[in-house]
Structure prediction request, 840 residues.
Amino acid sequence: MLRTVVRSVLRDRHRFVLPALAVLIGVACVSGSLLYTESLARGAERLQRASRPDVSVEVRPTGGGAAPGEALRRRLAALPGVAAARGTLRGPAFLVARDGTLVGPPSADAGVDFVPDAHGADPRYPMTRGRGPQGPGEIAVDRWSAERAGHRVGDRMRVVVAGEVRSVRLTGVFTVYDPATAADGTVTAFDGATARALFAPAPGRYASVTLTAASGTSAPALAKRAARILPRGLDAVTRAELDREAAAAPDRQKLGTLLLLFAGIALFVSAFLVSNTFTMLSAVRAREHALLRAVGASRRRVLGTVLAEAAVVGAVAAVAGYALGVGVATLLAALFGPAAGPADTAAPALLSPLPLLTALCVGVGFTAAAAYVPALRASAVAPVAALRTHLPAPAAALRRRNLAGLAVTAAGALLMAAGEGDLGVLSLATPVLLAGLILLTPQLARAATRALRAPVRRLTGVRGTLALANARRDPRRTAATAGALTVCVALVSAVTVALSSLSATAGREAEAGMPTDLRITAVDYAQVGAHTAARVARLPHVAAVSAVREAGIRLRDGSDLWTTVVDPRAVGRGRLADLTVRAGNLDDLADRTDAIAVTRDLAEEHGWHLGDRIAGRRLSDEGTADGPALDRRIVAVYDGPDALGPALLPESAVAGGGTPESAVLSVLVRAEPGHTAALKEEIRRALRNPVLLVEDRADAARDAEQGFGPLLSVLYAMLSVTVAVAALGVANTMGMAVFERAREIGLLRAVGLDRAGVRSMLRVEAVVVSALGAGLGILAGAAAGVAAVAGQHGAVISVPWAALLALLAGAGAVGVLAALGPGVRAAAVPVTRAVGGEVG
Prediction:
């Protein structure tokens, strides 16, 4: 049997090339994703060890416990077997290059504490030039960042820390292997006192304390000794546990899952191609299967033969796909990993057991599963019936398929309508709707070709008529070919419509939520300086300005109220923003020492009225009610934007009391009439801070809308693989149709259809099938995209018609390209040979 299967595959190898290529692409995506995830884990583990070579045990808060302090560090340093105990501090710090731009992405710019030993060296940051920082006006940076910033030891440079720009002197350059530099960011070292002032979680506290084991002391033994003296809320973790945590970071696992999801989609689309290939091969081999049955072969033998062919094709594709997967993993590292820097991710392994075994199982098992239904259909045909040259699908079977398609489509549409934006329901409704449309595709293909008959005949003449007849001849085959495109285009359409709607919604909300002329905010991972509002207030053309903070109050009923803290002089009498006062007077926020203003919605929710008192305890930034008591009187009830709600507290209400002030979220500025644009430029020149954004309403809306652009590009890049597989499906169908219709093409050539006519006929057929699949996909995808957004409050439904029409035109182009090869091959065969047999 094996020899028969191998001979059969080799004989029809030209028919298995495209299905094998589709499986190869899917396997390459799966194995590449697994290899890349493994390389990330190895790289993270290596980076964890290299970034802190002196760590044997780390003492850190757990379960909301307080950070370790200096007294505990000294106690830990006195333990037997401890060579050194180091307090660790880390926070955001941004280097400014000579041209005024930031060095590295803000998400990966870190500031650290330089802890010298008796010789003035820090094992984590070994100096290559200069020395470590020794005062508040000095810093040292990693070598890679110094080169990009264009600075040398001794230069003065700018660094942004705690929202403020500082002019400092560069005293040293060091080498480092750190998560920040691995992500193309920067590492800036400050002296210990400065680092404590900037990055300490609380006065006298460290983020963690790391212990270096003395010679002869193991990390587990040291961790046990440390655990005996640790207060509740602190934990001692060994180096091995830290390495495992770094390798199993949740974000890395999420990325691996996302990549595998798209690889699975590519494989699913490949199933249409594999199934269609074996369906067409079964029709071609009907006589061969009949002879096997006639000489005694059982249905199981025929079924096993076809499945064995699929397994052989899958095995070959899996081996080649794994080899290509190594390249895919390298490409993913270039796209998602560090673009540059001294600490790249580990190279993907050439032979990794799990990805290799997965590739083989997926390639063989998936191909065999996709070929099972065609194989079962081939084995079910009686020997006498199989001797016929053509076996059209029974009308009863098509009727059953149409009824099932109507039921499934209706179920999917009802689920989508009932989902109301619930992603869980939509993730079920969308596949159900797609399945129903694919089941209906044979009937829809008949209807579409009937509707297109007249216009296509006028445009292309008899060639178009023949092409439409070919598309109608085997509706199941047309459905299988169009189904792959339906799935791909549906995914692309859903992503396009959903992100376009989310972008429009975000833009409108950003513009409507801007309470005043200008707003100063920080880029992600940075913050606005505490003195920014005061500096802006000194500029000309400023009518009102206020820093905006957030403060939480734990009310006596146990609920939490998060308030907006503002300058009370700025919000009174509509100086800063147009707030509609329903009762009381906002000027009382500045005049009374116990004042608070609440929005009308909040007052109605709690049953509060003007003059009522709100009592509670201030919340810390972590949400614990350990701050000072607050007792405030409602002096105004107002309506206003969310940015100034749901309650207003004056700055004096949260100053002092033993609780540090919350970080400034933004600075709101109202310009004098007619001076908004000029003031925006004045603020930028005055602050000279590259981490701060000065925006008007149009800027806010535009930035919010553009925020979805990178995500859309990444999703398009991932989905382009599935579109390529779907295009292979169209090309495969057209190519096999040429072999099937050899005699028919020869007869057409004999009665006068020239080579250009043959190519045109195949082109029209491919375009019709592609457009049918794309049209159904756009319909289902657009519905899914709208349903995903429609349930959100205040959602703006934005259907990018131009993009969807371009998608439909692209599907037509796919059909044209898919028909090029088969058309040239069919037109090049002499008429006498085509009439006599097979084209190939």
